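Researcher: Batch entry, complex prediction.
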Amino acid sequence: MTFKIGELKTDIATLKNLEISLGRVEEEWEEPLGPTPMPSITSLRRWDYKLLQRYKPFYLPFCDLCCLCTFGKCDLTKGKKGACGIKMDAQQSRIVLLACCIGAATHTGHAREIVEFLVERFGRDLPLDLGDQVDLEAPNIRLVTGIKPRTVGDLEDVLDYVEEQIAHLLASTHTGQEGDPIDFESKVFHAGMLDHVAMEVADIAQIAAFNFPKGDPNARLAQLGLGIVDINKPVILVIGHNVIPSIYIVDYLNETGLKDEVEVCGLCCTAHDITRYNDRAKIIGPISWELRFIRTGVPDVIVVDEQCIRTDVLDEAAKIHAPLIAASEKACRGLPDRTYDPVEEIVEDLVSGRQKGALILDMDKVGEVATKVAIRLAPERKKFKALPSTEEVIEEAKRCLQCGFCQKACPNSLPIPEAMAMAKEGDLSKLAELYDYCIACGRCESACPSKLNIITMMVKSSEKKVKNEIFKVRVGRGPILDTEIRDVGRSIVLGEIPGIIAFVGCANYADGGTELVEMAEEFLKRKYIVVASGCAAMTIGMYKNDEGKTLYELYPGNFDAGCLVNVGSCVSNPHISGAAIKIANIFAKRPLRANYMEIADYVLNRVGAVGIAWGAMSQKAASIASGFWRLGVPVIVGPHGAKYRRMLLGRKEKRENWYVYDARTGKKVYVGPVPEHLFYAAETKEEAMIMAAKLCMRANDTTKGRAIKLTHYIDLYKRFYGKMPDDIHLFVRRLADIPITMKDEILAELEKKGWKETEIPDPTLIEELVRVKEE
Amino acid sequence: MKFEPYQTAEIPGPLKAIPVERPQTVAGIIRNAKRPIVIMGSKTFDVVPEKTLRDIIQISKQVGAEIVVTGGINKKFEEIGIKEFKSMPAMELADRLRDPEWKGFDGKGNYDLAIFVGFRYYYGWLILSGLKHFSPEGFKTLSIEPYYQPHATFSLYNMKIDAWSNYISLIKESLKEKR
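Model: Structure tokens for the complex:
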């Protein structure tokens, strides 16, 4: 469809002779088109520059070199230029952009695969019905592209746009293209924004097609953990992120009456999504549980789709004599393509061990082969002992040379030699202790000159703990309901709900996953809205209180103060950014359609939301975070997140950086450093919690709201650091901002700093949003 | 092995830290700084024995260096009776150290030598890399961790904790002798 507009006046700009083509979409959306439909890689550059003026990149190079072309290697140390003229800051931002393009492309490829599959199976007209309480079904898509998708087929146009933009972004990383670090950073933001669009495509398509929960706060609880599998049944393990193969396994079991006979359990986001589809499916855990679970020998067959699957999964499966079925073109694993072979032949080859695995790209066939192989193999495999005995672990430990290579290879520098020294004396307690802090990457084993199976030894030493890993997680509920936004929008924008804390990302924890649970519980008790997705949502469920309950059993699943929302898998993250967008549109009535800059300005200045990606590891996590940054939502990562190579940091003492326009008068008003940073790697969970509470402050907070937010910030600071923070004067605007219970203490601090009252404006960074200009 | 990065895959270069074998040399580096600062990370209490911690504090007193703690170890410092220190998150501090306009904690201007100890290896590695590439002319970093930190300007080498404690103690003694 083509729009032709003679003149379009918006708050942001006046556009003349605008002609916009929106592909195949039958457009019936009455909301006028905003200023930036399907923005190009520079359309929002102005907004990005505003953000990057405040939040300057601090680069932490991984490497002194650039090795991307044959001019190099080039030494970029301390201001030196490469052969193409590039300098270290631009090179680092270029690498960040590459990472974000990988992340965005991965979700886009995932979304394209889902949409193509659904169009082929159900036709382009399959409606995108997200339930009767979700009218705003695609906030990111509508905001960015200007398309209001009604059917799965409409999503093809959205993906056409995203794919084209990713190609342009990738092109800009070529030698001799972009050379300015800030322009690279603007493109990083663009990649992130596209990523949220692509993820939204994937998730709303699968919710609509497979009838996943449609924003249900009371979505049921699924079983979670290594101890939940019924090992007396044949076990199919699914790993990855694209749920379609798993759905066909479950459907086959249902259709053949075998649903009670076979266990289906999953790792990573495929596990999240299969529990959204089927009430019998189970979640083993996040990516770090992959090696552990395979090493138990429990899976009879392993089915992998795409993303975050160990690339040595074929070798690991072979070690436990479990065949591997690869079901994605993107990860063929070197396996023979058996897509067009008869089912019985494939089953025979896998059961007999003639082939270690098979690539099968026909989903019906995946379901049938996986089931038949599991049922045939299970009786024999149950006799097979994958884990060593305790005596064998002790004997193995005696082969340890105490060379320390394992500890030097370990990302968390765990004291494995010490644990081995104790184990060879018969004490396995240290190995069991390390289990809680190990991310099970296996680098220690690769480094070990004695070829010790260190992960297996840890799992065996923790056997009792492993068997008790029986938890519950609320199934991913998908979108936030429009009605919930109406209920809480006001309290969030005025600051009376202290903030939204979103726990997202992977499981690369520096000090174990329990830290994440502690943080989530802290904010739940403080009545923040706590949201979770992906591996983080699983980790939050992996802890029980004294009464044996997980946080999902203790806190309701509503999008409300003191509630815990699991939106679902990685591709469910846009329901979190979407909630912020919905607040601007549904609650504040800001125009949504193709109106990115105004909505992001609204979120930055009014919606106290912060992401915590405590174990972020992947390129996808990088692009997800960058989508939040452009929308004005800060993200905190754990210590390993420093390896993303750059922070986006504000300088609170530089007063000139913290001015906004008062939209009522046009006057420039100092609002303090709110939010202080956009991207920040904390050293400890305590630091992260204090920072998250601080980053929830926004320029628009009412005095009551600011007092509530300050209460949490100061209380956390005092609890963990034992004193008052020294920057309170930057966050108190009026005397009424001061929490009553801390009045004397704070007044004393303010007096020391020579504090003076400041105004509370109707804040915006965008000049055109000023309603009345000051004379 | 002495001057190899402690974590296997953290390969540095071309510009690597100057390894310092003798405590007396370290004492000289510290003594020659006009405005040194000592930065103690969140792992201080996991890695540094209390005696060594007190030696480091003594060293900073000997040369008039401010102590800054990061990652929220303030309370533990106070618990062992140490009161004179500043605190700031490590990333915020590193961001300021690279800024020639920063006035420091005392308002007298930025520092010329930042001494690091008590950090996770990779976290310290990255901060030191950021400072290596983007700090002002004349600014130097010294890692006094018990292992080689290749992105510092100067670094100690990989050693066992006992040997390291002794090394730190000798820095203190050396500074005392030359006062």
